[in-house]
């Protein structure tokens, strides 16, 4: 397929007064940041970080104008390096994509070759897009748990923010890897859905509204926290001896209150995850996500929403307001 002369993109600008505005535009290839590989975008995942960028709600984008979108899956249209060839299915995430380099919210992208990875055998392009950054984030946390000796038989793994994309994919991936998952959500109407994707237990996040103690009942061997704030504090206080918490998100805020007691009395560990891993780790984890950690797609797909690029601004506003759930993909065939 030839490179299109023009294509549609959602481009974000900043005015002289500092106001951030995002709008649909018709672009040419030379309007995009430089790169050796030209990709026709098939799917672009919509993450909370992207929504903040589009509406100027946080200082994420490094320079303007910029096409946001921190991840994409598509097909190579042209490449000046031998490692990629036209028609090859590829994925891109991390490496400041959508931040310092133009990202996925464009029907065509130009990407540095070092930022591009082939879709691994065992995944279709659509499955790779569904997993995307949320699933890769969960995989990074899971690999760290294993390194710390937290095996499937050690105890339950808590997954906060279970109604969102990270929670959805994290629950499915942990279950596929053999772990008992305790999904935490304020939307208890979703209990049946969460059990269908692999949760053994669903906990009402209203537990945070109860009286809090310096140390709670030890109930989790590990946790992936996508929320931050009081949830992160509660999870740390609820760790069993030697438990570990992966902090991967901050939907409830950047700070949390806590004490040293979980670390001293129960040897708890807290570590952070950002889905911008070194190349070798990317290849290793995507290979696992394509085989032994591949989520049950039949269970996950009913909770994946596809939208057109033209609907992204409206959707992203709802996502920032907490009015969306599950995984959302911009589908460029729409």
Provide the fold topology:
Elements: E1 7-14, E2 20-27, E3 37-45, H1 48-55, E4 66-67, E5 71-79, E6 89-93, E7 108-111, E8 116-118, H2 125-147, E9 157-159, H3 165-176, E10 181-185, H4 191-196, E11 199-204, E12 220-225, H5 229-237, E13 239-247, H6 261-265, E14 269-272, H7 279-290, H8 297-300, E15 304-307, H9 312-320, E16 327-331
Helix pairs in contact: 1-9, 2-3, 2-7
Describe this structure as you would to a colleague:
With 334 residues, the protein is an alpha/beta fold. It folds into two domains: 7-119 and 300-331, Medium-chain alcohol dehydrogenases, catalytic domain (Quinone Oxidoreductase, Chain A, domain 1, Alpha-Beta Complex), CATH 3.90.180.10; 134-272, NAD(P)-binding Rossmann-like Domain (Rossmann fold, 3-Layer(aba) Sandwich), CATH 3.40.50.720. It is 26% helix and 27% strand. The chain contains nine helices and 16 strands. Strands 3, 5, 6, 7, 8, 15 and 16 form a seven-stranded mixed sheet that branches. It has a six-stranded parallel sheet with strand order 11-10-9-12-13-14, with helices on both faces. Strand 1 (7-14) and strand 2 (20-27) form a beta hairpin. Helix 1 (48-55) packs across helix 9 and helix 2 crosses helix 7 (279-290). It is globular, with a radius of gyration of 20 Å. The two termini are 18 Å apart. 49% of the residues are buried. The mean pLDDT is 96.
């Amino acid at each position: 397929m030839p490179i299109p002369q023009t294509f549609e993109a959602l481009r974000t600008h900043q005015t002289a007064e500092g106001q951030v505005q995002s709008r649909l535009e018709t672009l040419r290839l030379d309007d995009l940041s430089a790169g050796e590989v030209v990709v026709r975008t098939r799917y672009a995942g919509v993450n909370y970080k992207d929504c903040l960028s589009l509406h100027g709600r946080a200082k994420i984008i490094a320079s303007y104008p910029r096409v946001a979108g921190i991840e994409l899956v598509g097909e190579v249209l042209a490449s000046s390096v031998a490692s990629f060839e036209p028609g090859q299915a590829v994925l891109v995430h991390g490496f400041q994509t959508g931040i310092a380099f133009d990202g996925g919210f464009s029907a065509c992208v130009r990407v540095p070759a070092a930022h591009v990875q082939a879709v691994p055998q065992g995944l279709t392009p659509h499955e790779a897009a569904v997993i995307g950054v949320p699933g890769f984030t969960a995989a990074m946390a899971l690999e760290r748990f294993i390194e710390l000796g937290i095996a499937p038989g050690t105890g339950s793994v808590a997954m906060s923010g279970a109604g969102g994309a990270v929670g959805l994919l994290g629950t499915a991936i942990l279950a596929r890897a053999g772990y008992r998952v305790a999904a935490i959500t304020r939307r208890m109407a979703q209990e049946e859905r969460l059990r269908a994707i692999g949760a053994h237990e669903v906990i009402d996040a209203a537990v945070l509204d109860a009286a809090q103690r310096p140390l709670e009942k030890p109930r989790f061997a590990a946790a992936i926290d996508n929320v931050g704030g009081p949830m992160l504090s509660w999870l740390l206080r609820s760790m069993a001896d030697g438990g570990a918490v992966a902090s991967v998100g901050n939907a409830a805020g950047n700070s949390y209150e806590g004490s040293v007691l979980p670390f001293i009395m129960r040897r708890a560990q807290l570590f952070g995850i950002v889905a911008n891993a070194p190349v070798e780790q990317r290849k290793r984890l995507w290979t696992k996500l394509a085989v032994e950690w591949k989520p049950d797609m039949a269970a996950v797909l009913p909770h994946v929403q596809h939208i057109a690029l033209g609907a992204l601004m409206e959707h992203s506003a709802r996502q920032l307001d907490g009015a969306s759930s599950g995984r959302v993909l911009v589908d460029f065939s729409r």
